[in-house]
Amino acid sequence: MDKLFSFFISFFIHIYAFTATVPFLWFFLLWIGGYVWHRDGKRATKLAMDVTTLLLIGSVSMIFKQLFGTNFGFFFILLLFLVGYGLLGNFQYRLKGQINHKRIIRLLWRVAFLTLSAVYVLLLIIGLIKSIVSV
């Protein structure tokens, strides 16, 4: 039973590692699949953004680890999520007098997609320059 469990864990780790190496490929595949399924471009874009954000978190933190040799990338992303949630929650409470957690999380997740996409491209460029210079 222990070998079966470790096989499934290893299998899912490898699947996630494969999908996280090319997150934008999965964005386009999910967008096409969502558009074909729902016939709604806006809904397909939201679905593709939501799934790709999860992949970008892993990708950006691993690229950060490869470039700078530290595991701080994941924890920095987590810290930014927590600070962003606090700021948005405070803003929403001051504006409306109550907090809508679902709306804050959705906004934070979509902003994270845009931010992590830019950071992903920036870290890829830094990695390419670093590998060219070190040769």
UniProtKB/TrEMBL annotation:
Tagged with keyword Transferase: no
Keyword terms, alphabetized: Membrane, Transmembrane, Transmembrane helix
What is the name of the protein in this document?
Answer: DUF3397 domain-containing protein
List the InterPro entries hit by this protein, alphabetically. DUF3397
User: Where are the bilayer-spanning segments?
Assistant: 6-35, 47-68, 74-95, 107-129
Entry annotated with the keyword Transmembrane: yes
